[in-house]
Design goal:
heterodimer, A: mainly alpha, MetI-like fold, about 0% strand, B: Rossmann fold, Rossmann fold, 6-stranded mixed beta sheet, 20 helices, globular, Oligopep_ABC_C (chain B), membrane (chain B), ABC_Ni/Peptide_Import (chain B), ABC transporter ATP-binding protein (chain B)
């Protein structure tokens, strides 16, 4: 048996070690999440507090990133804005993943009528101009952050469903699924504990893309005034409010815009890394 | 000096320098044939690839290899292109992937001609040349030249590949497992063709194979490789008469004989270790019954035992007598089987009929098949691919629904599992279990062995307690240590995968195991272990088997009754000794004749 044990340890040795990029990415993401939770505690000023006497100002030792037209501290607003930038996209990515994965697994595994119905719905939502739908619906019912979140879940989930359906179609005829069926494992269990772990890399990679996409989409909606309420510290809204001041205090626009880009990029990189780790999981251990 | 001389060939993985093949010496005179025999992981294919400059990226060869005054190790890619095909030809294992699917046959062969020949010939001459070359490999139907690979059977494709490999008249032909992916009856035809062409053209031949019997019948001399090194070499007849290395003998004995049944196959324990882990000892020492401390001190050199006979075993002089005794004991053994159709039938299949529809065509996989399986009985279902044997097995296991006919299992009508009540289905799942050919892919790659077995246990007994203890007991019953519960399937070897799959099937306490080619993907030495495990479990649990296989020698060892299937129907049935001993149907006779045999006459007749 000893020879065998050595073989195993050899196979296990070259684990995927996180490289520098991944360490940096995860650190930044960790900081952003911490800000989302504790941002208001560490911010130097109250993000809502106006100082009309000061008004618009450029970066200074008191206000590191300057203030906006109402004299609100930009840095404090960015720190406070992390919450709406992280929570909404996270809820959207997770919600779309759960909804899309359940539908995709069912469509791919059952086939037939259920597959047709689910996939026609997917085709339908794909043929709609998503952003426009959100703008119209949010415009009609009055924009709010959580309405935008729900709408985005419904619009994003079909993409997940399509990817998971394809991956499920690939897994369903594999002998391990038949083996599970022939020892009498129930269908929900086959879908959730047998097939899903094998399609999870795709599901999670897609969720990270969705996170980045919805972060940008939510920022866009806030920019249009259909997301968070006016005055709330939110990166998208800050870009919108600051755009007329671009040449007076560029930092007021560029700093929140940079945070949007940074967060979206970091989430994508982290998603890639998780995908690689998960897909090598079956192979290396 | 013409011919091939290889001296100290070493193949290593580029970045880590990990040894794959080491210290390989070969010599091959013009017109001579040699076989390189070994199991998977022995390095036999890497040796062949090094000799034709086709090592995968990142793997490199060192040492001396001279072929007709060309130093093969010094060639760059441009120089290789003038050697490959023209001087050294290669036939690969898988005829389904080695032909370009978008090329018609004539184009495959024309492209293989020497460029100067091709440009000299007119279109009509080229056509004539292709037809002649096809005829040489036994394809007399000239219209085959205009077909695509997907329109040809595996044997035909292999013939086309041989014609293409010979189009530039190479002096040396390397055949890498040329018949392994083919049906048994086709296998013999292809091997006979290669032998005939080799002799007719006066080529040298290197045959890479895992089957000693094929090596002996095809080649003048054989080299036996194990874990990256040659362990023994001799002429085929000497090697067959008396192997001078424990591994060669083990390999010979693990091959089940087709002409009689033996109580227990001689299995080599364990599995082939990676070459670099046994580089500093006798490579076989970890599995050898005769290994002593002296075997672990450095790797023994290949030394001459008798004139022309080299062995890497340092104890061969001491153990030679014992080896002889073991062999004659194993070969003398034969047990009788009693095979009367039992009165109580567990499974009754009546007039089973199954059609598959693909587009416009319907393919009949089963046309009116009736079989009976008794409780606790071992029954074989023998046939080649396309005979319907797997479809029948899957239908009994409820993985396929018949187009017509009935299946009754344990008194329940199981013709259509989707119409069963939940209770009946649960009962049948507990009655019939399936073992798949590819055990690795029948295990979920993301789940540990332990959780797979625990799931199977909890299906039979939802309130099971002491789960880890019960998983341990299951593993023990198939000869695995309890620690394996923590591992993922990827960390196990082929034989161990099959053991786990058997354990999982046993967890639901079935009455019948349907085994679909359960050892076909395993190395011979491991195959014997798994076959012995099947026999042992059958004795201990009284489970019946439906053993689906193409291999008559395996059927002989494990079942009492056999059904021979051909083109979707049963052509012959009866006790295994009668059917294999005195076959009455011509197809059964053909199957029996195609079981490889070490005798030189095997390729000639028929």
């Amino acid at each position: 048996m000893s020879a065998r044990t050595e073989v195993v340890s050899l196979i296990e040795a070259p684990r995927t070690r996180p490289n520098v990029l991944v360490v940096v990415t995860l650190t930044i993401l960790g900081l952003i999440v911490l800000l989302a939770v504790f941002g208001r505690l560490v911010s130097p000023y109250d993000p809502m507090q106006q100082d009309l006497g000061l008004g618009l100002s450029t970066p200074s030792s008191e206000h590191w990133l300057g203030t906006d037209a109402l004299g609100r501290d930009i840095l404090s607003r960015i720190l406070a804005g992390a919450a709406s930038a992280v929570v909404g996209p996270f809820v959207i990515a997770l919600g779309a993943m759960v909804l899309g994965n359940v539908l995709g697994l069912l469509a791919g595994y059952r086939g037939g009528r259920i597959d047709s119905i689910i996939m026609r719905w997917v085709d339908l939502t794909f043929s709609l101009p998503g952003t426009l739908v959100v703008i119209v619906v949010a415009g009609t019912f009055g924009g709010s952050y959580w309405l935008a979140v729900v709408l985005l879940i419904i619009l994003v989930a079909p993409g997940d469903a399509r990817i998971i359906r394809g991956a499920t179609l690939e897994q369903a005829p594999r002998p391990y699924v038949e083996a599970a069926k022939s020892i009498g494992v129930s269908e929900p269990r086959i879908l959730l504990t047998h097939i899903w772990p094998n399609v999870a890399p795709a599901a999670i990679a897609n969720a990270s893309i969705n996170f980045a996409g919805s972060l940008v989409a939510l920022a866009g909606l806030s920019f249009l005034g259909l997301g968070v309420a006016a005055g709330t510290p939110d990166w998208g809204l800050m870009v919108a409010e600051g755009r007329s001041l671009l040449f007076v205090n560029p930092v007021a626009v560029l700093a929140p815009a940079a945070m949007i880009v940074l967060t979206a990029t970091m989430v994508s990189i982290a998603g890639d890394w998780v995908y690689e780790r998960l897909s090598s999981r079956g192979m290396s251990r | 000096m013409t011919g091939l001389t290889v001296d100290g060939l070493r193949v290593v993985a580029g970045t880590s320098g990990r040894m794959i093949v080491d210290d390989v010496d070969l010599s091959l005179a013009p017109g001579e044939s040699i076989a390189i025999v070994g199991e998977s992981g022995s390095g036999k294919s890497m040796t062949a690839k090094a000799l034709i400059g086709l090592l995968p990226r990142g793997i490199r060869a060192e040492g001396d290899a001279n072929f007709a005054e060309v130093d093969l190790m010094a060639l760059d890619e441009n120089a290789w292109q003038r050697v490959r095909g023209s001087r050294i030809g290669l036939i690969m294992q898988n005829p389904f992937t080695m032909l370009n699917p978008v090329f018609r046959v004539h184009r495959t062969i024309e492209d293989s001609l020497r460029p100067e020949d091709r440009s000299r010939m007119t279109r009509a001459q080229r056509r004539q040349d292709v037809v002649w070359r096809l005829a040489e490999v036994g394809i007399t139907d000239a219209s085959v030249a205009d077909r695509y690979p997907f329109q040809l059977s595996g044997g035909m494709r292999q013939r086309v590949a041989i014609a293409a490999a010979l189009a530039r008249e190479p002096e040396l032909l390397i055949a890498d497992e040329p018949s392994t992916a083919l049906d048994v009856t086709t296998q013999r035809d292809i091997l006979a063709l290669i032998k005939k062409l080799q002799v007719a053209r006066g080529m040298s031949l290197i045959l890479i194979t895992h089957d000693l019997r094929i090596a002996f019948s095809m080649c003048d001399r054989a080299y036996v490789m194990y874990a990256g090194v040659m362990v023994e070499t001799a002429t085929s007849s000497e090697l067959e008469h008396e192997p001078l290395h424990p591994y060669t003998q083990g390999l010979l004995l693990s091959e089940p004989p087709a002409d009689r049944r033996i109580a227990e196959l001689v299995a080599i324990p364990g599995s082939v270790p990676p070459a670099d882990q046994v580089a500093t000892a006798c490579p076989f020492s970890t599995r050898c019954a005769w290994a002593k401390a002296e075997c672990l001190v450095g790797r023994p050199a290949l030394s001459e035992v008798e004139p022309g006979r080299l062995s890497r075993c340092i104890r061969i002089d001491e153990i030679r007598g014992e080896l002889r005794e073991v062999r004659s004991a194993a070969e003398a053994e034969a047990v009788e089987t009693s095979a009367t159709e039992p009165a109580t039938a567990l499974v009754v299949v009546t007039d089973a009929h199954k059609e598959f529809r693909s587009g416009q065509r319907t393919v009949t996989a089963l046309g009116s098949v009736s079989i009976r399986l008794g409780e606790g009985e071992g029954v074989g279902l023998v046939g080649e691919s396309g005979s319907g044997k797997t479809t029948l097995g899957r239908a009994i296991a409820g993985l396929e629904t018949l187009t017509g006919g009935t299946i009754e299992i344990d008194g329940i009508d199981a013709s259509d599992w989707s119409k069963l009540s939940a209770r009946d289905r649960k009962k049948l799942r507990g009655t019939v279990q399936m073992i798949f050919q590819d055990a690795y892919s029948s295990l979920n790659p993301t789940r540990s062995i332990g959780s797979a077995l625990a799931e199977a246990i909890s299906i039979r007994d939802p309130s099971a307690r002491n789960m880890s203890q019960r998983v341990g007991e299951l593993l023990h019953s198939v000869g695995l240590e309890p620690e394996y519960a923590q591992r993922k399937p990827a960390a196990l070897s082929g034989g161990q995968h099959q053991r786990v799959a058997i354990a999982r099937a046993l967890a639901v306490h079935p009455k019948l195991l349907i085994c679909d080619e359960p050892v076909a993907a395993l190395d011979v030495s491991v195959q014997a272990q798994v076959l012995n495990l099947f026999s042992r479990i059958r004795e201990e649990h009284g489970i019946g088997y439906l053993f689906i296989t193409h291999d008559l020698s395996i059927v002989r060892q494990v079942v009492e009754r056999v059904y021979v299937m051909h083109n979707g129907s049963v052509v012959e049935a009866g006790p295994v000794d009668d059917v294999l001993g005195t076959p009455s149907h011509p197809y059964t006779q053909k199957l029996i004749a195609s079981v490889p045999s070490a005798e030189a006459g095997w390729l000639g007749e028929g």
